[in-house]
C-alpha cells in the first residue's frame, strides 16, 4: 500500500495554476484543507482536489457569510 505524499504550498499552487498567495488566502478564508507541520503548511492533493470539486475555489463562495453580492 502506498501512501499519498504531503506537498508544499508551492506544489499546490502549481497543481492548481494559482499564485502561492492565493493558496494561503484560500486556506485562511475559505477552508482549503491543510495541515501544519512545524512552521510549514502541508497538503494532500486528494483533499485539495475534493475541496475544489465541492466549490471551495468558486469566486462566489465566502466562508462564514452570504454569497449574495450587494451593488
Record the SSE blueprint.
Layout: H1 9-16, H2 20-29, E1 35-37, E2 40-42, H3 45-53
Antiparallel strand pairs: 1-2
Write up this protein:
It is a single chain. The chain has helices spanning 9-16, 20-29, 45-53; strands at 35-37, 40-42. The protein is mainly α and 71 residues long. The chain has a domain at 9-53. A two-stranded antiparallel ribbon has the order 1-2. A hairpin with a 2-residue loop joins strand 1 (35-37) and strand 2 (40-42). Helix 1 (9-16) packs across helix 2. The longest helix has 10 residues, at 20-29. The protein is globular. The N and C termini lie far apart (53 Å). The model is unreliable at 65-71 (pLDDT under 50).
Fill in the keyword field for this structure.
8% strand, two-stranded antiparallel sheet, mainly alpha
What is the radius of gyration computed over CA atoms, rounded to a whole number of angstroms? 13 Å
Kindly name the structural category: mainly alpha
Strand content: 5-15%
Outline the biggest β-sheet. Answer: 2 strands, antiparallel
Approximate shape: globular
For this entry, what is the oligomeric state of its chains?
single chain
Helical amount = 25-40%
